[in-house]
Amino acid sequence: MLTLKGENIYLRALEPEDLDFIYRIENDEHIWEMSATQTPYSKFLIKQYLEHAHKDIYEVKQLRLVICSKDEMVLGLIDLFDFDPMNNRAGVGILIAGKENRGHGYGTEALQLVVNYSFKHLHLHLLYANIASDNATSIKLFEKQGFNKVGVKKDWNLVGDVYKDEFLYQLIHVH
């Protein structure tokens, strides 16, 4: 089982007991804009997802890890998605749940652990992130980790009745 340890947090694989946490996250309409979700998920669907979450990244093309504090509190999720081993790249997304958990460096540490894991163990050449143009917190987080803005997707996401731009950020591993 995959566990990545940092100074203040650790990342672990999804477990069946994460059902209620995932259910809350996936059904929080405030987060839908970031995750491109348009409809709620049932507990049944999430339970099925958790039953297959142990599968290898090479098989399912994604890896979702739970961000936990040293005292076992679940803080959020970090994902590698669109895993493409032929081109050695993947997308990365992160969510720290609960405003009280933000601004403590948990996201920075989680992103650092996933970047290191991606380059050292998965031998990726490139990580990318899609970030809403008005998401200053995520922009700062990814730029601090060395990601560079390489493009703007104009009017990419319809949020309510407003089209919003999305930035494409990349981090290329220099060997």
From TrEMBL:
Keywords: Transferase. This is Acetyltransferase. GO terms for molecular function: acyltransferase activity, transferring groups other than amino-acyl groups. It comes from Aquimarina aggregata. Residues 9-169 form the N-acetyltransferase domain. SUPFAM superfamilies: Acyl-CoA N-acyltransferases (Nat). It comes from the Bacteria. The keyword Zinc-finger does not apply.
